[in-house]
Design a protein that fits this description.
3 helices; mainly alpha; F1FO ATP Synthase
Amino acid sequence: MKKFMLILVMMAAAAPLYAAQGDLATFGIALGAGLAISLAALGGGIGQGIAMRGALEGIARNPNASDKIFTPMIIGLALIESLVIYGLVIAFILQGKI
């Protein structure tokens, strides 16, 4: 319920930015660009940390399985990093609108 209320308050606070023109619209676009890259980097860092922890724990428990764990871990890390790059692209697109 708290998360729902937080989302509702954030949407209500952001509503004037949709109809804004001029300086307020520029502020909203800049804020969106900053949030896009910061949240993407935060989520990607957390995801990569969890993935690395799981892989290293698996290798520590069974060193013979390191070859079977290493390749899927690298592929997973690349996919996580691609989501961060999408956030960067969105930030650049929004910066271009200012």
